[in-house]
Design goal:
3 domains, three-stranded antiparallel beta sheet, hpI Integrase, Chain A, alpha+beta, single chain, 450 residues
């Protein structure tokens, strides 16, 4: 059982700090300042409390009694939870006991996030080589979603959440609510926790009082083995291209699918392209775009005759990502992309994604396009070239993305391949030089005997 006591750490003839220390057993003892002071001559060594010889000391005695009771209740409330009781926690509870933290509108985390959302376009973001203005649309939407979750949690707990409230107990409770009540996947819940940590760190830099635990927040992520995004092979894409589809809507979705698997872009970037993105150089087709998420300028060379024909003569009309996701499942079903495959599908009855085997067409989404491109062209085209098109910044992330472990022979094989090409080019140049007629020299006499 926890014990709570008070003491002075100095006997000087002047006011000194009153310390509170709690023992949680097994030598686990923590001590912090209560924020109160007293002259040692007014302190009773027998009771470890102020002598009640003046009105001021009687008030101080009652405040310490109040703090003792408050700390006992707070410790008992969290003993059954995985909360770390340390100096940070104890200091926070002392402030709560005496309402020493002024909770202003500026300190409300939802107000701060809303201001971040409102100023998303002018928000300064650090990038390689300096700064830029404006966060990506997906990042903005992520903060919008986190604010909605926090607002809903405030209604559930009937308490406004301030930055000073971001204790381990709060984070643990909020995360459990996201996972157990809202039925969110681990990565979705972790994204909200990560956003909270981000705004806490930023708010503290701006002078807003933030609970010191915020820096210790740990972000949990689902292992890559548990993440399943399907790809379509060249053979499967050929089956989709040849499938007998009569519906205009499904024909349009098929075009987007085939183009998407050939240019390797995210669904939002794919659906934003128009004929204005197309240009030609030396008779070859190129597609220029700027990725919404990374703001990177990307150029893709189009090599498939079928895709070139689509872009030039039968450009698909724009639809929403949701409609495209619905339609491409039907397209793949008609094309008989139906082998049993492991994956996750959202179940409306349980409110979460269920992992099991499904017909593959049920698992195809716009996320499949970019991954199919990377998987299909991997080792056929140098990895840095693929990364430049897909927008991946690190090869390690790219390999995880396509589930390709590091191949120690890959760079050596590529070097050998290009060495062979260079050697053949040199041999051809040498042969050409040897076959060229050698210059003939003729001696011309100048008419003298010399």
């Amino acid at each position: 059982m926890a014990s709570i006591n008070f003491r002075l750490r100095s006997s000087a003839n002047k006011n000194v700090s009153i310390k509170v220390y709690t023992s949680l057993g097994r030598g686990n003892m923590i001590e912090v300042s209560t924020g109160f002071t007293i002259n040692p001559k007014d302190w009773s060594d027998n009771t470890d409390r102020p002598k009640q010889n003046t009105a001021e000391n009687k008030l101080l005695f009652n405040n310490l009694k109040k703090l003792e009771s408050f700390l006992f209740d707070s410790i008992n409330a969290v003993m059954s939870e995985s909360v770390v009781i340390d100096n940070f926690w104890l200091e926070t509870k002392i402030k709560e006991c005496f309402n020493r933290v002024k909770k202003t509108d500026e300190g409300l985390i939802t107000n701060y996030i809303q201001d971040l959302i409102d100023n998303a376009d002018t928000r300064k973001v650090k990038v390689k080589g300096g700064f830029k203005h404006g966060i990506s649309l997906s990042r903005k939407n992520s903060f919008i979603s986190t604010k909605q979750m926090l607002s809903e949690y405030e209604k559930k707990t009937k308490k406004k959440i301030h930055f000073i409230d971001i204790t381990q107990g709060f984070i643990d409770g909020f995360e459990r609510w996201l996972l157990k009540t809202k039925k969110y996947a681990v990565n979705t819940a972790s994204k909200h926790i990560a956003n909270i940590k981000t705004v806490c760190n930023e708010a503290e830099k701006k002078g807003i009082q933030v609970n010191s635990y915020a820096k210790q927040i740990n972000i949990v992520s689902e292992s890559d083995d548990d993440r399943y995004i399907q790809t379509l092979s060249f053979n499967e894409l050929d089956e989709i291209r040849k499938a007998d589809i009569t519906s205009e809507a499904y024909q349009n979705a098929r075009k987007w699918l085939l183009i998407g698997c050939e240019i390797g872009q995210r669904g939002g970037d794919l659906l934003n392209i128009t004929k204005d993105n197309i240009r030609y150089k030396n008779g070859k087709m190129y597609l220029d775009l700027i990725q919404q998420k990374t703001k990177k300028a990307v150029t893709i060379g189009i090599i498939s005759p079928y895709i070139i024909d689509l872009l030039e003569n039968s450009f698909p009309y724009k639809i929403s990502t949701q409609k495209l996701n619905d339609h491409i499942k039907k397209v793949c079903e008609i094309a008989k992309i139906n082998q049993m495959t492991e994956g996750k599908i959202f179940d409306a009855k349980t409110g979460r994604k269920e992992f099991k085997e499904y017909e593959k067409y049920k698992l195809i989404t716009t996320h499949s396009f970019r991954r199919s491109f990377c998987s299909n062209y991997y080792k056929k085209i140098p990895t840095p070239v693929l990364m430049g098109i897909s927008g991946h910044s690190k090869e390690s992330i790219f390999r995880v993305y396509i589930n390709a472990p590091e191949d120690t022979d890959e760079n050596a094989d590529l070097f050998m391949k290009f060495s062979d090409l260079i050697q053949k080019q040199r041999e051809a140049e040498q042969k050409k030089t040897e076959q060229e007629p050698k210059p003939q020299f003729t001696v011309i006499k100048n008419g003298t005997n010399e």
